[in-house]
Each structure stands twice: as structure tokens, then as C-alpha cells.
Specification:
Strand order of the largest sheet: 3-2-1-4-5-6-11
Bound molecules: nicotinamide-adenine-dinucleotide, uridine-diphosphate-N-acetylglucosamine
CATH topology of the domain at 3-181 and 234-262: Rossmann fold
Strand content: 15-25%
CATH architecture of the domain at 3-181 and 234-262: 3-Layer(aba) Sandwich
Order of helices and strands: EHEHEHEHHEHEEHEEEHEEHEEHH
Structural class: alpha/beta
Shape: globular
Radius of gyration: 19 Å
Amino acid sequence: MGKILVTGGAGYIGSHTCVELLSSGYEVVVVDNLENSSKKAIERVESISGKNLDLVIGDIRDEKILDKIFMNQMVDSVIHFAGYKAVGESVEFPLKYYENNVSGTILLLEKMKEYNVKNIVFSSSATVYGDPHEVPIKEGFPLKPYNPYGKTKRMVEMILEDLYESDKSWNIALLRYFNPVGAHESGLIGEDPRGIPNNLTPYITQVAVGKLKKLSVFGNDYPTKDGTGVRDFIHVKDLALGHVRAIEKIMEKPGLFCVNLGTGKGYSVLEVLKAFEKACKKEIPYSIEPRRPGDIAKCYADTNYAKEFLKWEAMFGIEKMAEDAWNWQKNNPDGYGDN
Ligand code: NAD
Ligand code: UD1
């Protein structure tokens, strides 16, 4: 088994994926500039898995860093997580997003080509579907991202599609994640957002732990079961295992493929809130507020292709996601503590 370069491996999804890669016997080298993460995540990945990885603290936009890695390590595949992910910020600072997410990826791909490393798993997002005409969402649905963040994801997918057309010796996995939540069951690694969280579940756990006063539920007049937004929440461990499967698949030299990583189930904001109240054993105060601009009513995956092609399926339900997210939050009220 070759060595996997994980860009952004200290981040939320990256750190959980490193645990599963190490546990499956892969050697791992991480490159991360720690701009949105902590070195402690890597130390804890090592303690959970009982194995070491190589950490290179540096930026994927730095040619010298990439040269050093590809020259000195026998990398045969790359899992590319590094990038920015805040939708609101991408609207305010689009150039920052295009520069890191698109230009950063282009440099990484140029270096991969130079060193003849032609296997890549890319972190895309369900956001590339925009507001879908129906649910569940199949991989072949129209792609119409409507914010700069979502556009960077689609642009990179297009770049990878063209790269593959030009040279069929590449193997490329485009993984479209739905809404990752939860944490490793050890409670040692989890999501550690900087500042006030934008996403639902970190917001809920911070209310439960007493750091925030109450949850604002953004809209209860959507055409959904209870009027609140419906999403496909997926346990981060399931997502991490999806990457291990994608790497195994890439070893079979499949060319380019694109799969949804979701559970196929939609939960409403109020259902998620209830699941977290159960996990925390406390009531979580909330109020109904106006819709958040840019939000859609319903988003969940059709998972048939992932099952058939990748032989991968999510195992965990919302209860386990809530339990593990809460376990992480209560053991680490300030996350890694170095934000
Ligand atoms: P994260 O911010 O926790 O992880 C990203 C990591 O990349 C961080 O550790 C950050 O320090 C690092 N990084 C950013 N730019 C870098 C650069 N130029 N060089 C080196 N390191 C850099 O985010 P995450 O939630 O783990 O997401 C990982 C990937 O998955 C991202 O590409 C994101 O867009 C994508 N994604 C995330 C979600 C989600 O809800 N979390 C959903 C769909 C897709
Ligand atoms: C958001 C991003 C998406 C990204 C995903 C995961 C937008 C428009 N989309 O998706 O691109 O891939 O995060 O990082 O930002 N909610 C509340 N109160 C809150 C927070 C959220 O009611 O305080 C509701 C939202 O209205 C939504 C649901 O909870 O209905 C989920 O929200 P969130 O966790 O932010 O994820 P998405 O909006 O699905």
C-alpha cells in the first residue's frame, strides 16, 4: 500500500479521514497550513490510531513545499481537503476563495503531474447542485452552484474533468459531501469552528454547553414536514470511511468518477434539535427566526450509485451523530483550545 498525501489533513474531515487511513494500514503525510485547524488534531489522530504520520506545516500554494513533499516521500495518491469553506465569507471575499480553492488546486495538480502522481480524491460538495428540482439528488442532476464557494467546487470538478480528458492515465474521485456532523467516538477529535459557528450542529452543541444563549431556527415556512429546512446529515466517520473506499477504488484504476456521500435520509432542523436534546439530556432553547438568505428547503442524496459503484454506505444515524458531537463538545468546550 502506498503513501497518501492528505492536504488539509488537520481539519475537521481530514483528521477523521487520517484516523481511518492509518487504521486501514496506509502511510500518511499531511500538508496543512493550520489556518483553520490545530496541530493538536494531528497529535490526537496519532494517539487514537496508535500510528504516526508525517506532518508538513505549509501551504499548498507554496511550490517549494510541494516539491519537497513529492521529492522526499513516495506519495502515490492525494486526498485534497485543503481550502476555504464558509459560504458567507465567499460572497464577501470571492477572490480569496478562487485564489485558494481554485489556484491552489491547479498548483497541486501541476506538481502531481510533474512527479507523475496521478491519483486524486477531491472534496466536492452537494452545494454544486444549487437548489435541486427534486430530492433525492442523483449525481446526474443539473449543476448550478450559486455562491462563490460552490462555484469554486464546481470549477475544480470541471478542471479535473478536462485533465482526465487530456490524459486518461489519471484516476480521479469527485466526492460530493452532504452535511458532515459528529465527531470521533473517543471525543478526542471533532469540529472546532473559529468564532460563532455558521452551521447548525456546532451551533446547537455550543448552546448546550452554555457558550451561546439560544439557537435561531432559520424559517419554519418551508414546504417540508415541519416547515424547517431538511438536510442529509452524515456522520464524519462514515464520510471518512467513504474516502478509504474511494482510495481503494482508485487502486483499481477506474478513471474519473463522481459520487454523492450522504445517508439518503433527510432530517429537519427541529428533528436534529430533538436528537441533540436527547443526547445532551437537556432542553436546548430556540426561537423561530426569518429564513437565512440563500438557504434551500430540502437537500438529500440519492445513495444508489455510492452503494453500487463504491460499495459504500453510511452506517450511523442521527442519534449517534448527536451523541458523538456532544461527547466531543462537552469534553472540549473550547475545542482544541488554541483558536
Ligand atoms: P476545515 O477547514 O476543517 O479543513 C480544511 C483544512 O485545510 C484546514 O485544516 C486548513 O487549515 C487547511 N487549509 C486551507 N487552505 C490551505 C492551504 N492553502 N494550504 C494548506 N492547508 C490549507 O474544513 P473541513 O470541514 O474539514 O472541509 C474539508 C474539505 O471538504 C474542504 O475542501 C471543504 O470545502 C469540503 N467540504 C466540507 C463540507 C463541510 O460541511 N465541512 C461540506 C462539503 C465539502
Ligand atoms: C451550508 C452551506 C453549504 C455547506 C454546508 C456544510 C450555505 C447556504 N450552505 O449548508 O455550502 O456545504 O453548510 O458546511 O451556507 N440552521 C438554523 N440555524 C442555524 C444554522 C442553520 O436554523 O443557526 C438551519 C439552516 O437554515 C438549514 C440547516 O439548519 O436549514 C442546515 O444549515 P447548515 O448547517 O448551515 O448547512 P447548509 O445550509 O445545508
